[in-house]
Amino acid sequence: MSDINAVAIEALRSRLKAATIYTPDSEGYKDVIIRWSDTGMKYAGVVVQPIDVLDISIALLWAEEYSIDIAVKGGGHSTAGTSSSDGGLVIDLSRMNQVAVDTERKTITTQGGATWKEVDEAGAVHGLAAVGGTVNHTGVGGLTLGGGYGWLSGEHGLTIDNLLSATVVLADGRIVTASATENADLFWGLRGAGYNFGVVADFTYQAYDQKDPVYSGLLGFTADKLEGIMDALNESLAKPDSRFGAMCIFALAPDGSGPMIIVIGFYNGPCEEGQKKFASFTALEPVLNTLDMIPYSVVNTLQNPQATYGDRKSFKGVFYEPPLDPHFARVIFNDFMAKIQGEPDLMTSAIILEFTDMRKICEVPLTATALASRNPTQNGIIYLRWTDPSKDLEHRAWAREAQSKWKAELDAKTKDQGVNSSVPQYINYAEPGDSVVSNIYGENLGRLQDVKVKYDPKNVFHKMHPIPTGSSVSKKE
Question: How far is residue 267's CA from residue 278's CA, in Å, rounded to a whole number?
């Protein structure tokens, strides 16, 4: 960690009147550098918690004046430390977490430091919901700027497809609005590569009526039911329903009794219809069944017990072309269980596979937003969790090896189908530097380079999948 000199810190304090400032000797400093994953924590030279856009602007101009590295922290869920800076400035948006609902226009506006919990709960008060994440303590910023899948994506597309406008503070301190009619090129870039252009102080989303509860909950199965579960999940994609969604989780049972397969089910409709939708799953005799009518805002809490703060974590995105081969799934399941049962420190790890109706998402042309991965390819995550720092390299190497098996399976399948699989990967599930995800922006890269040069020519925002440009000035972290 490099120290920021006292003169620079004093200059920052003199300019920021309402923001909270933490330096390494401040009380509470260690609390504000904590991240969702211990692997994402770095020792910042200074942390600023702004209360408005002017504070953000002042902090950015100060960092430029003193040539200080910048990171932006919203929810802080990056396992790779992209919301942290070693010795630099962290703009921590956690005090900017207000949410406003416009019932007439059916829009929800949220500040950049809010989590989806605040959005879900504010919307629910008025019988509205926005397309948000599936873990409610995830920050709105990271999920949105990378695309944003949620339980409502089958009906309404991605989070970015429902983004109406954003307030952005640029590296040079300017405060601008990005929308279809203002700074439209920036608005285009924010929707899929938005980490690259500025600090987003607020987002306005289109919301939808969600007065009724939804049919949702957990199904738990013993390992011998894997092939039957895969058949049922594949059938759900073969006969898609925009109101239906599911996640399949390979994990160990919480009571330590052995391998388990959890299916999180979702159906945005009445109970009887939901029961029919999940009949093929319940026929497999789950050992756990919590499916019931629950408020939409509760659905996004179902993964919270597994996605708690703390410990060391690694995310590796996996991508598959449906139908998912049950034999391949069995090989992956057995390998994963052998690994985490053989190493007790990994016992809370999981593989999470998503089954989403992609039709609405694929209706949007590939060049309409910066997101390069609009295709029927489904997403998943190898989620490793451990406590021993000396095992970091070993566990990440194993995860990369497991990830490469999914890539080989995808390449073989798409080759057989004559489909180009060069950009199937969802940016939010791709850790920076991930060699498997080698082509993040696809055919949108050229236009993104132009937007980057226009709005961030000095490459101040470079933490998360930086856009390569000839004029970018590389900054050391």
Answer: 9
